[in-house]
Structure prediction request, 381 residues.
Amino acid sequence: MTAQDLVQQSGLGERKWRRRSLWALLLLIPLTLAVDGYDSIKALLADNDLFARRVAWGQSVHFGGSDWKLTDLRGAFGMANLPPDSVPVLADFSVKVGDPDLQKLWLGCKVMLIDAAGRRWTPTSAVTLKASGDVQTCTSAIFSGARSGDTLNLRETFLVPKDVTKTIRPAVGLASERPHFLLFQLERD
Amino acid sequence: MMRKTANIVLLLVAVAFCYGLQMSKPHYGDLIGPIPARGKMGETIVGRNFEARAEKVAFARNLKVDRFGETKILTTGGVWAVVTVEFAARAQSTSVAVASWRGPTGLAYDQTERMSFADGLLPVAIDPGLPKKARLVFELRPDEASNATLLISEKLMSALDSQAEISLGPVATASDGLPASTVDTLDMSQPI
Prediction:
């Protein structure tokens, strides 16, 4: 074997490895991005209500360890001292508690109204309507000490523009179920 | 010898280059700071989650506030500036909590904390499709009143989130140094 052959051979080997390294980048760059972005993506999914699970009217759905059912959605028309063209909306749920560890499973409970354009309304403090004694909000129910098998009556009050009352649908998100959330359909859907 | 000199020159060039890079790069605070949405008085400024429109600015020597049914007059060694702003939420309900007044010399004044119970102050909860007015109240030096900028954001740490920056324009000054439109007492119990 002459010195020239050796030089040629090592040149071939180098070229081969250079090519392999370039191909490896195709895999390594996406992999680096994935490892680097893992925590951010996890946080994004855990903090946002992104994927709707549609629930037909009258149906009860297991969510966050309990069975959720929308019982009523109605407007409280004719109230005074409200912004023009706005109407309070009441959403009532009946929830049969399965797993009673609500402080863990219902953490970050968020009830919303979502309209056809995807706009979201969260409960208001501008309107207070009297309710019977056993009606709670989602957050107060977390600390109610409810046991397995109990049925909780939840009510949330919203303030929405009058023109969206036809298209709004109630939705519920819980930290333990995010990024999925429940989107309740109405009787007329 | 030649090689040594070349190395030293190279080192100096590298130091100068690194120094240049350090001086010219944006500050870390700017990179992750609020994202400005700029506009003028009367314009609707659209941020990520909220819209804001400054309607008017009023200046006063004293403010009259009702606190627990008792009327109080708040005096100042400077001047009170009361900005009426209309807010609206965009895609989801939110609240706007932070505002400051940046004067022409760069001095920034946070909202006053002297009237915590008055109606219509921040934080204001806003819902999509339901615009709401609020009053932003600042206590400032009279020479900071003209050509000021109003900075509004949803929360204190608005890193990488919208901050409305509203130019309030020039304000004529009277002979006493206060803005010419300054009233003696502004009644804050009046509806907005």
User: Anything to note?
Assistant: The mean pLDDT of chain A is 91.
